[in-house]
Amino acid sequence: MPGFARSDDADPCACGSGSSFGDCCARALRGTPPVTAEGLMRSRYTAFVVGDAHHLRETWHPGTRPEDVVLDPATEWRGLDIVDTLDGMPGDRRGWVEFHARHRDGTEDGVLHERSRFVWQSGRWWYLDGAVR
Question: Does domain 25-132 have CATH number 3.10.450.50?
Fold first, then answer.
């Protein structure tokens, strides 16, 4: 069982932005809301990589989030590719981010292809839901 990855601030961020973890998703995981929907989506992916269910729950819109978020430590997240974004910038009210998230479950490789919806509310971005493609 692989378990969750650990990240030091100097490590490359798991979201694939090219920045260090400390300069990228660590800020969101430590409580500073991202300024774009894509930034929130990247931080949520990184939360899956490092096993931060708290971040996933706290960034899920209260109207659509499940009661509990349980992560499977046997799933190893292996990379994120942003396919497309629509809106989701400062000043927007809504945003969409389409992505591919590569993973390995045991001996099987897979790709989650999702188009996620985000909403700007109460001074921050929230994940609403996603359509798996």
Answer: yes
